[in-house]
Known about the structure:
mainly alpha; ABC transporter involved in vitamin B12 uptake, BtuC
Amino acid sequence: MVIDAGLQPVLIGTTLLGAVTGSLGTFAVVRRQSLLGDALSHAALPGVALGFFLFGRETPFLLLGAGGAGWLALWAVMIITRRGRVSFDATLAGILSVTFGAGLVGLRKAQTQPQGAGLELYLVGQAGTLSYSDVSAVIAVGLLALIGIGLTWNLCFSVSFDPTFAQTIGYRVKVGEAILVSALVLAVVVGLQAVGAALLSALLVAPAIAARPWVNRLIPLIILAGLFGSVSCALGAILSHYLSDPTHRLSIPTGPTIVLCLSALTILSFLIHWLRKQIWLRQGGGT
Length: 287
């Protein structure tokens, strides 16, 4: 199959994005903090609006604002959970709703400006507009996050599974948590433009969930989750491109199509694993 020239940067960018977000999101799933990715993605919206009002429409400034807002939201969560009596999940849900509302107000206000048209796409994504410069940004940010985790692997591994034990053997748990959360913030920043705040959590969580039935160790889980994420993103980009028909005004959005493909892959993974287990039991494997 010959790939259209306009599809090439979108296909490359979404495939790499799926690999990065799938790999980094694995740590949120392992640490049972899947809601954290959702909260960070929604918290990025007011940062996009603030970046627009302060610096203009340039994409790097918008994403910088998104990353800064994500960090501030995380800082607020840590302060509330440590000094109050509110649980971690409840705090995340509160931060998610507040920042999402603020983001919608900010984006609506930005659309009244001459250059503010189209900023609402950061809510649902605009993967169909990815360029080779966006591909370079995904590669740079992904490598930065993965290299940071790789250089501190023992610390990140210990913090992910047993923070108490990590602290008893002398590891700085807060540093490890900061590294893991920073990697997740970077994943949110690179994925926000493609699939949007409303759908980004699926890209962070679903690949690891789909890979979990097949592996029991962390490194294979990270690799398989990255593979599932990249395959789903590539398939979603291809389907969105070739199912759209401009002559009949039919436009299939890339971001939602990617999430649907990822959902289908997750269901298929669990179904195949269940069927495989049933066959194994019928053949006497359970005896």
